[in-house]
C-alpha cells in the first residue's frame, strides 16, 4: 500500500506479485536501486523470466495517481547541457523526433514519466517524477541511453 525500501523485513524472497490497485515501480535492490520495472493492476506470477531478472523484488515505490498536465525537458548532456527539448506527450523515438542521440539529464516540471532504454518503449526503464535529474550516469545509469519516454496516465490505474 506504500513505498518499501527493503522487502527483506517482510519476507526473505519475493518471486511473484499481485497489484490490486494503483501502480508501482519495483527494484531488484534495496533502497530503490538497481533494475526497475513498472507494475500496474494485475498478476505477475512469473515476472522474473518476463524481465530477464536473475534476482527478486527487493524494494518498491508506489506511483501516486496524477491528473494534471505533463511537461518535461530533456537534455542531450549532463547538467542540462547540449540540445534541449520540451516534451508534453509520449515519444516512441527520441532520435527520430528530436534528432538527439543521447539524453543524459532532464527536468520534470509536471507529471510522472517512464524513460526507456530502447525506442518504442522497450528495454530497461527509469521512473521520473517532478524534479531535476542532472546526471543519469550519477544515478546509476551510466551505460544506458534513453531512447523513448511515456507519461504514466491515470487510465493505467
TrEMBL record:
Q: Which Pfam families match?
A: Crystall
Asked if the Swiss-Prot or TrEMBL record annotates the protein with the keyword Transferase, the reply is no
Gene3D superfamilies listed in its UniProt record: Crystallins
**Which keywords does this chain's UniProt record carry?**
Repeat
Q: Which domain of life is it from?
A: Eukaryota
- The name this protein carries in UniProt is Beta/gamma crystallin 'Greek key' domain-containing protein
Chain ranges of the Beta/gamma crystallin 'Greek key' domain: 22-64, 111-153
- Report if keyword Repeat is assigned: yes
Assigned protein family: Belongs to the beta/gamma-crystallin family.
Amino acid at each position: 500500500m506504500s513505498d518499501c525500501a527493503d522487502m527483506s523485513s517482510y519476507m526473505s524472497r519475493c518471486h511473484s506479485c499481485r497489484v490490486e490497485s494503483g501502480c508501482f515501480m519495483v527494484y531488484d535492490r534495496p533502497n530503490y536501486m538497481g533494475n526497475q520495472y513498472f507494475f500496474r493492476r494485475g498478476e505477475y506470477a512469473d515476472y522474473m523470466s518476463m524481465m530477464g531478472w536473475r534476482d527478486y523484488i527487493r524494494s518498491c515505490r508506489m506511483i501516486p495517481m496524477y491528473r494534471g498536465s505533463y511537461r518535461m525537458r530533456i537534455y542531450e548532456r549532463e547538467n542540462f547541457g547540449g540540445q534541449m527539448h520540451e516534451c508534453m506527450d509520449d515519444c516512441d523515438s527520441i532520435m527520430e523526433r528530436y534528432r538527439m542521440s543521447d539524453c543524459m539529464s532532464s527536468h520534470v516540471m509536471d507529471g510522472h514519466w517512464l524513460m526507456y532504454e530502447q525506442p518504442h518503449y522497450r528495454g530497461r526503464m527509469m521512473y521520473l517524477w517532478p524534479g531535476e535529474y542532472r546526471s543519469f550516469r550519477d544515478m546509476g545509469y551510466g551505460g544506458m541511453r534513453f531512447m523513448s519516454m511515456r507519461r504514466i496516465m491515470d487510465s493505467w490505474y
